[in-house]
Specification:
The chain is α+β, with helices and mostly antiparallel strands and 396 residues long. 51% of the residues lie in helices and 8% in strands. It has 16 helices and ten strands. It has a five-stranded mixed beta sheet, with helices on both faces. The longest helix is centred in the middle third of the chain and has 32 residues, at 222-253. The radius of gyration is 21 Å and the shape is globular.
C-alpha cells in the first residue's frame, strides 16, 4: 500500500484510507517510501515510548535541521532533558495561571474584531481572523517579544509549519513551500538571535532570558540556543491554532453537543480533548530503528528502517475506543496522542489547554451559535493537519 501524504484529497479526509491500512495489518510497509506504517494505539505507544530502540534523532551528517540548529525535540538522550528542563517549571499548570488574565485579554481582543462581523451577517475566515493570531501572541508574551512584532511571528510560523508537509511533496509546489519555510526560519532565527543578545545584557522574567541565564547555555552553541527558542515559537503557535480551527469545524457539525457546552461550561476541557482525539493535529510520529532485533506489531524491522506511527489512526483505534469514528464530548477520558507520547510528550501541553479553554469559553459567551459554510480546505500538510481556512457565518 501507499499513502500519498501530500495529496489534498487524502488530507481532506484521511480516515477511510487509514482504516483500509488498519485492515491490511498492524504494520504495513509503504511501497513507495519503504517506511513501516503503524496504526494501532498500543503499537504506536510501544514505538514512541522506547527511545532505546526507536529514535527521533537525525542521522549523523544530516545537517542542522529545520530550525537551523539542534533542538531538544529530536534528541533522545540526557541532552534532551537538560535543555527541556530549562523551561519545565514555566509550563507547569500552576505557574501558567499567572498568565490567565493576559490570555483572556488576548482572546477578547481577537473576539472583539471577529464576533461583530459575524453578527452583522458577514462570512469571516476564522483561521485568518481569529485562531491564527491567539497562540502566537500568547507565546510571544511568554518570550518577552514586542507586541508590534507578533503578526510577523505568525507569518513566520505559518510558513515554517508548511515545511513538514512539503517534505513529502516532490512537486515544484512542494519545493517552493519548502524554500519559503526555510527562509521564514532564517528570518525568525535572526530576530531571535537579536533578542538573545539583548537578554544577555538585560535579562528579564521571560523564556528567552530563562535559557540564556541557565547553566546549560554555557554548553550550547549560539545556533543551538537560537534554534530551541525558535522551536518554541513554532510549537506554541502551529498546533494550538489548528486545534482551535478543528474545534470550530467539529462543533459546527455537532450543534447539539455545542449547545450542551453553552449550558455546561464544566464540559469544555473534556470537549477539547475529544476534538484533539477525533481530529488529531500532529498525525505523524516518525522514528528510525537503531537497535538489532526490533519488532513492531510482531513484524521484525531492521536497523536504519523508518517507522511511521500514524497517530490520527491510533486515536481512532477500535481496540481502545468504542465508536472511535464518532465525536462524543461525554466519552470517558483516556490518554490520546494529541500531545505526543513518552520522552517527547508536549512541553506546552498545559499552556495549550489553558489557551483553548479560555478561548472556547469566551467564544461560547459571545457566539453560542455558528455555521461553517462551504467545503473546508485542509491543504496538503498531513503531518500537522488542520483547516487552512474556516469560513464562519451566523447560524440561520
Amino acid at each position: 500500500m501507499h499513502l500519498d501524504l501530500a495529496d489534498a484529497a487524502f488530507n481532506r479526509d484521511p480516515y477511510p484510507e487509514l482504516e483500509a491500512l488498519r485492515a491490511a495489518g498492524p504494520v504495513v510497509r509503504d511501497e513507495v517510501s519503504g517506511a513501516w506504517l503503524v496504526t494501532g494505539y498500543d503499537d504506536c505507544a510501544r514505538v514512541l515510548g522506547n527511545v532505546a530502540t526507536f529514535t527521533s534523532e537525525q542521522p549523523e551528517g544530516s545537517g542542522p535541521g529545520v530550525f537551523g540548529g539542534p533542538v531538544f525535540e529530536v534528541m533522545d538522550g540526557p541532552r534532551h532533558d537538560e535543555i527541556r528542563g530549562v523551561w519545565a517549571a514555566d509550563f507547569q499548570r500552576q505557574r501558567l495561571e499567572r498568565h490567565r488574565g493576559e490570555i483572556r485579554r488576548i482572546v477578547d481582543d481577537a473576539l472583539d474584531a471577529f464576533v461583530p462581523r459575524i453578527l452583522d451577517g458577514d462570512v469571516v475566515d476564522a483561521v485568518e481572523h481569529l485562531t491564527r493570531a491567539i497562540p502566537t501572541r500568547v507565546i510571544a508574551v511568554l518570550l518577552g517579544i514586542d507586541e508590534r512584532d507578533q503578526r510577523q511571528f505568525s507569518d513566520w510560523s505559518d510558513a515554517m509549519g508548511a515545511v513538514a508537509g512539503a517534505l513529502f511533496d516532490t512537486s515544484e509546489r512542494g519545493r517552493q513551500v519548502l524554500q519559503t519555510g526555510l527562509e521564514a526560519t532564517r528570518q525568525l532565527n535572526a530576530y531571535i538571535a537579536a533578542e538573545v543578545a539583548l537578554r544577555r545584557r538585560r535579562p528579564g522574567d521571560d523564556l528567552i532570558s530563562r535559557m540564556v541565564t541557565a547553566p546549560v547555555a554555557a554548553t550550547m552553541s549560539e545556533a543551538e540556543i537560537v534554534a530551541n527558542n525558535t522551536q518554541l515559537v513554532f510549537a506554541g503557535n502551529e498546533t494550538t491554532a489548528k486545534w482551535m480551527a478543528h474545534t470550530l469545524v467539529t462543533l459546527a457539525r455537532h450543534p447539539d453537543q455545542r449547545r450542551t457546552l453553552v449550558r455546561d461550561r464544566a464540559r469544555v476541557p473534556a470537549a477539547l480533548e475529544e476534538v484533539l482525539r477525533y481530529e488529531t493535529v500532529a498525525q505523524v510520529g516518525a522514528r528510525r530503528v537503531r537497535a538489532e532485533g526490533a519488532h513492531v506489531g510482531g513484524t521484525p524491522v531492521g536497523v536504519g528502517e523508518a517507522v511511521t506511527c500514524l497517530l490520527g489512526a491510533a486515536d481512532r483505534d477500535p481496540a481502545r475506543w468504542d465508536r472511535p469514528g464518532s465525536f462524543d464530548i461525554a466519552r470517558p477520558a483516556k490518554n490520546h496522542f494529541g500531545f505526543g507520547f513518552g520522552l517527547h510528550y508536549c512541553l506546552g501541553i498545559n499552556l495549550a489547554r489553558l489557551e483553548t479553554a479560555v478561548w472556547l469559553d469566551r467564544l461560547l459567551d459571545r457566539l453560542p451559535e455558528w455555521e461553517v459554510t462551504g467545503t473546508i480546505d485542509y491543504g496538503t500538510n498531513f503531518v500537522l493537519r488542520g483547516p487552512v481556512a474556516v469560513p464562519i457565518a451566523r447560524a440561520a
